[in-house]
Design a protein that fits this description.
With about 240 residues, this protein is mainly α. The chain folds into two domains: about 5-195, no CATH class; about 195-244. About 80% of the residues lie in helices and about 0% in strands. The chain is built from eleven helices and no strands. About 25% of the residues are buried.
Length: about 240
């Protein structure tokens, strides 16, 4: 298998060795190993240093980790001083983490989930879920391939390459589009879910939503929206079981 494809395949498991000491560092080192193999014959000492550097502390969004991996790998072959490569890795952590979160967790995922829910409500059935899986994974794989190629091509100039790419524009549109689709899906799905229960159920659902917002703001990080939703569902099942 081509070594670049080996590295790409390993990037999909970059969180497999996640830990508090190095975050994604060990996974990045494992993904870098195929790319650094040719350096061993050219400069064995440099190769050993590069392998160690590639596994040092690193943390960013896993879907964009290829940008850092490709850039630092090219820098190793170009003989860039190790100190500068380490600085590049550190400098990329926060931007890649923020951009990945905005593009995927705050944009693509909620937007696709909202569209999937609309599809289910409108009668698409399992095809809506299948469509979600196909679209998300197509974008995920395409982004990973682009990230590694761009990083390898740019090297130490990866910041400029990111700034002139499609990524900033996609992030700019991802949030508003997700907000639109979620805003469209919520009343449609709520109307479908509460159909037949009457106004009392609708008022109760609104009350739970308001209580959730208040409690999450009151308790802060200790009570996330996911935890509150799970608690609400458990209580709902309990009340139904008790016939309340």
């Amino acid at each position: 298998m081509n070594r670049r494809w080996q590295a790409l395949a390993r990037l999909f498991a970059v969180q497999g060795t996640w830990n508090y000491e190095r975050m994604l560092g060990v996974g990045m080192g494992y993904a870098a190993e195929p790319l650094l193999e040719d350096l061993k014959a050219v400069d064995p000492v440099r190769h050993g240093e590069a392998v160690v550097r590639s596994a040092e502390f690193f943390n960013c969004h896993p879907n964009l980790a290829g940008l850092a991996l490709g850039a630092t790998t090219r820098a190793e072959y170009e003989g860039v001083p190790g100190v500068q490569i380490a600085r590049l890795r550190t400098a990329l952590c926060s931007p890649l983490g923020s951009m990945g979160d905005q593009l995927f967790w705050a944009g693509l995922v909620p937007g696709l989930v909202a569209i999937t829910l609309l599809g289910l409500v409108l009668g698409a059935g399992p095809w809506a879920v299948l469509g979600f899986l196909l679209v998300y994974n197509a974008i995920r794989i395409g982004t990973a391939v682009w990230s590694l190629r761009t990083g390898m091509a740019a090297g130490m100039r990866v910041g400029n390459a990111i700034g002139s790419s499609w990524l900033p524009r996609a992030i700019e549109w991802a949030g508003p589009l997700a907000g639109f689709t979620v805003g469209l899906a919520v009343p449609v799905v709520a109307n479908w879910y509460l159909a037949g229960f009457g106004w009392s159920a609708a008022i109760g659902a609104a009350g739970v939503a308001v209580a959730g917002i208040a409690l999450i703001r009151w308790f802060g990080p200790g009570l996330t929206s996911v935890r509150f939703a799970l608690l609400a569902m458990v209580l709902l099942l309990l009340f139904r079981r008790l016939g309340l």
